[in-house]
Amino acid sequence: MKKKLALIGCGYLSQTIAQAIHDGRLPEYELVAVLGRDPVRTKIFADYFNCKPCLDIDAVLALTPEFVAEAASAESVIDYAETILAGGAHIIVLSTAAFADVALYERAIKTASENNTKIYIAGGATGGFNLLQTASLMSSTPIDVTITSKKSTGFIARTPFYKQGLMNISKPERVFTGTAKGIIDTFPYVFNVVYATALASAGPEATKFNIDAVPNFTGDDYRIEVNGDQVALDLTIKSGDYAIAAWSVVSILKNAASPVVFM
């Protein structure tokens, strides 16, 4: 019997996940529902992918999905995570920056524990969480973690880090230096993958984070440097399309249903 999957969000990422099921990439699953805020868009999505359009979380849970994948917004995690977990479904989270609300994170963990459900945190544009956890566990002292993100000047122009003349730079220029917690405090709900990486390694307050503005740059580029007393890691993840976030959800679903798990 196939596992039931529901999606939160009708955008590009949810479409990519749904298309993976449609194309046979996840034969272990059937898509039973999509939850959206716009009735018209939600129905168009549901009609195309042959699932039920839902406008509230109760309608989703009435279909008894085993997994609910969030590919929408931090607000969706805030609004629905505890209800999903209490309702007997596992949740896959892309908008991990919502868990910068520590009280929410702790409540979600408690709810999952009490209901035998799980919170799966997707790697998005980074990943390697198994290696990061391994490094943290095997080191007898706290690991040192630094994440550096390359971003286009156009992206930076839409952030608090823009300054006059940045659009005319001819070489990379650092525009932010701080921590994973600091970036979320300054620019909430945007750098989800940075917060997720921090949760998997040194923690949000101890994980250092830099942003470099790079002229003529496209896509995503994250470098994760880890140093401990027993291990050193240097990971660079480059992607030309943010669909990598959706495919990280597909990977989680694949592993959850497979007798062989790649971690």
TrEMBL record:
InterPro entries per the UniProt record, alphabetical:
Asp/hSer_DH_NAD-bd, Asp_DH, NAD(P)-bd_dom_sf
- One Pfam family from the record: Asp_DH_C
Q: Where is the Aspartate/homoserine dehydrogenase NAD-binding domain?
A: 9-121
Q: Where in this chain does the record put each Aspartate dehydrogenase domain?
A: 170-239
The UniProt entry's coiled-coil ranges are none
TM ranges are none
This protein's source sits in the domain of life called Bacteria
**Its family?**
Belongs to the L-aspartate dehydrogenase family.
Task: List, alphabetically, the PANTHER family matched.
Answer: ASPARTATE DEHYDROGENASE DOMAIN-CONTAINING PROTEIN, L-ASPARTATE DEHYDROGENASE-RELATED
What's the protein here called? Aspartate dehydrogenase domain-containing protein
Give the organism the record lists.
Psychromonas aquatilis
> Which lineage do the record's taxonomy fields give for this organism?
Bacteria, Pseudomonadati, Pseudomonadota, Gammaproteobacteria, Alteromonadales
